Amino acid sequence: MLEPDTHDHPIHAEGALLPWYLNGTLREDERCQVDQHLLSCVACRAELDELAQLSMQLHEVYAAQSEPSTQIQRAVLAQVQRETSEKRAKSVTGSPCLKGLDDWFRSLFVPRWAPALAMTLLVAQLGLLLWSLTLSILSEHVTTRGLGSPTVRLRVLFQETASERQIRALVQGMHGRIVDGPALDGAYIMEVPAGDQSAAQKKVDALRSQTESIRTVEPVTP
Amino acid sequence: MDATHWHDVSDPDLLAAVAGRDAAAFERLYQLYEKRIYQYVCTLVYDPTLAEEVVGDAMMAVWRGAGSFSRSSRVSTWIFGIARHKALDALRRTGRHHHDVALDEALELPHAQESPAESVNRKQVTLVTQLALQTLSREHQEVLRLVFYEELPYEEIAGLLSIPTNTVKTRVYYAKQRLKHQLQQLAQDERI
């Protein structure tokens, strides 16, 4: 059931702040406002007493609720230890190899002509790279992975109640694909084909109209 | 250095140490949050096994993503946010949805003995409150926990749930009214 954003019957603005007055997280100005209001409002004082009683009862309920098994903690901490050890092992075993490579590389520059030769080779390679890049631009046989250009990437937050099937149908309907996500805030990056700005905007509007499944859609700025 | 070294350290400092790949600091953070996250996730998924899986996923995400904490909210809000997204993903993946529990479907209280009229004992009150809580919607149960147990500011609850601050205030108001109504119903039904 979705409650309205405003109350059906009048409630003081200060009354709506009482739960946070009770848990001590109001800003200083809000706390003072509620303090002042409580001096003259019997209804809000009664409400505050009720909330205090309720808060105590809820604390008892939550404190008595079940705890997770010890297995989870063991599994998570073991995984963390594994990841830490793997990282440590990589940095330790890497060092002797890198040192040896460094020593060999330095030995190449002992003769006087070695730096000049190295510079010549670098310039030659740069020229080769530029030549091959020019060729690929002129080439007609460009192959790309994915949907084919052009595409646009959209940052999508799905509704909490959207099912996996709905999301799949939506993505397929857009001839798109999910390329990243979920991020820590639950958002996904969807790539959809769009020839130009106006086509991209049409895709965004089409997705936004799917309010049953989509909460927010924003183009990803490159 | 073991987890006891981190006992008097604030949450932001703990998380900063975790970002620096300190496993002992992570262990301490885990001890502080495991039960809270588990109980919060149970509110969302209603399945202890799934909740444990979500807790594991969420805390691994905390370990790997600690460096991305921006200090723009409390550490608890950030961690609860990760757990919430993991829980919703799990619900989506398993195709499960919460259903409201009517008062009649809630577990029946054991018959109270003929007790003096002056008061109901504390255990009975806790049980009654738990029964009434079970009949509330997931959204209402969630906000009551975040306000009264986790003691989060309303702005952070709004950020966590991705809803406006006014909606947080009205949701808490209606949740409290609904809980009060259910408690009164239980009392009238002479189950206590």
Features of the shown structure:
heterodimer; A: 222 residues; alpha+beta; disordered N terminus; B: mainly alpha; 8 helices; globular
Q: Which pair of protein chains has the largest interface, and what are the residue counts?
A: A-B, 56 and 60 residues
Segments of chain A where pLDDT lies below 50 for 5+ residues?
Answer: 1-9
Count helical runs of chain B: 8
- Helix/strand-derived category of chain A reads alpha+beta
Note the main sheet of chain A. 4 strands, antiparallel
Query: What is the C-alpha radius of gyration of chain A, as a whole number of Å?
Result: 31 Å
Looking at the structure, what is the overall shape of chain B?
globular
In terms of DSSP E residues, the strand content of chain A is 5-15%
Kindly state the number of beta strands of chain A: 4
Q: Into which percentage range does the β-strand content of chain B fall?
A: under 5%
Provide the residue-averaged pLDDT of chain B: 85
Following the backbone from N to C, one meets helices and strands of chain A in this order, namely HHHHHEHEEHE
Sheet of most strands of chain B: none
